[in-house]
């Protein structure tokens, strides 16, 4: 079977959630071989316009680009040459509404918007897109009555966008803070965190366990994952000394903090970045 970008991206993330630094060091040869093969794969799916296809013969969209960047940064195989032209391609995906589409010219969509803006963050080009228009589009995706987010303009609320939309706010907050925006809150993200928690906890819990898109829908792993990810974003603001938490309901509702770019527990992310960051970047020539 040929490798798929989504699987290649999520495999190291899963390892990160399960592993400690000591466990990484127990398999140095496997780690080295994996990183070399990873570089070969990324080079094989890189497109001339800077985008990445999902697999050989597959489509190119901003999901593949985010997955490529996330795994490359997390495992320290990133090079400027490998991602040459990528930032320019991602910026073309931003629409007149302000969100990002899957490819240039497509409609703005929550999942693509997270992948697009997170890609710019990983490329350290987070201030290069139209931030004002992006923020306006994002804030208008939170539903006034339900409290959750819709994925596109004039669509229904959907629980998974608790993360795909909600997870972009911490990324924007950081860049606006760095730019010295004096109107920026030091206590809240720029959406109604309590309303999102209410939607998730009251409307999206299945009586048999797991979480659902909206009342009346069946539970599934996908929505359970991204509803929980959105819930922790809504619960925790910032980090360090300025970090605050607003937990709706019982203190038992509190979830661990995640790294908003990788959607992995913060401690595990820091540990993985520290371990792989100490390793040399593999130098692999592309095999035609």
TrEMBL record:
Cofactor annotation: Zn(2+)
UniProt remark on cofactor binding: Binds 1 zinc ion per subunit.
UniProt-listed Enzyme Commission number(s): 2.5.1.58
Catalysed reaction, written as an equation: L-cysteinyl-[protein] + (2E,6E)-farnesyl diphosphate = S-(2E,6E)-farnesyl-L-cysteinyl-[protein] + diphosphate
Entry keywords, A to Z: Metal-binding, Prenyltransferase, Repeat, Transferase, Zinc
Self-association and partners: Heterodimer of an alpha and a beta subunit.
Any single GO CC term annotated in Swiss-Prot or TrEMBL for this entry: protein farnesyltransferase complex
CDD domains for the chain: FTase
Protein function: Catalyzes the transfer of a farnesyl moiety from farnesyl diphosphate to a cysteine at the fourth position from the C-terminus of several proteins. The beta subunit is responsible for peptide-binding.
Classification via SUPFAM superfamilies: Terpenoid cyclases/Protein prenyltransferases
A biological process term (GO) from this entry: prenylation
Domain Prenyltransferase alpha-alpha toroid: 30-264
InterPro entries membership: FTB, PGGT1B-like, Prenyltrans, Terpenoid_cyclase/PrenylTrfase
Name by which UniProt lists this protein: Protein farnesyltransferase subunit beta
Similarity comment: Belongs to the protein prenyltransferase subunit beta family.
Statement: the UniProt record of this protein carries the keyword Repeat: yes
Biological classification of the source: Eukaryota, Metazoa, Ecdysozoa, Arthropoda, Chelicerata
Gene Ontology molecular function terms on file: protein farnesyltransferase activity; zinc ion binding
């Amino acid at each position: 079977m040929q490798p798929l970008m989504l699987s290649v991206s999520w495999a190291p993330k899963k390892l990160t959630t399960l592993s400690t630094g000591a466990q990484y060091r127990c398999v140095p040869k496997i780690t080295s071989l994996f990183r070399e093969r990873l570089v070969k794969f990324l080079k094989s799916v890189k497109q001339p316009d800077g985008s990445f296809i999902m697999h050989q013969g597959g489509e190119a969209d901003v999901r593949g680009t985010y997955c490529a960047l996330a795994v490359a940064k997390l495992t320290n195989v990133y090079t400027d040459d490998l991602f040459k032209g990528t930032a320019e391609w991602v910026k073309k995906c931003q629409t007149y509404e302000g969100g990002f589409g899957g490819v240039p010219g497509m409609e703005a969509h929550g999942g693509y918007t997270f992948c697009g803006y997170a890609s710019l963050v990983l490329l350290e080009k987070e201030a290069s897109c139209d931030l004002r228009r992006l923020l306006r589009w994002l804030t208008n995706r939170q539903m006034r009555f339900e409290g959750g987010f819709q994925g596109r303009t004039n669509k229904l609320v959907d629980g998974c966008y608790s993360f795909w939309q909600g997870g972009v706010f911490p990324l924007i907050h950081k860049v606006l803070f760095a730019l010295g925006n004096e109107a920026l809150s030091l206590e809240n993200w720029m959406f109604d965190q309590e309303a999102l928690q209410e939607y998730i906890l009251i409307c999206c819990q299945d009586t048999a366990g797991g979480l659902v898109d909206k009342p009346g829908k069946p539970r599934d792993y996908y929505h359970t994952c991204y509803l929980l990810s959105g819930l922790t974003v809504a619960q925790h603001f910032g980090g360090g000394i300025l970090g605050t938490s607003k937990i709706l309901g019982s203190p038992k509702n509190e979830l661990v903090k995640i790294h908003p770019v990788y959607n992995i527990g913060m401690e595990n992310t820091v540990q993985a970045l520290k371990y792989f960051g100490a390793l040399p970047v593999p130098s692999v020539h592309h095999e035609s």
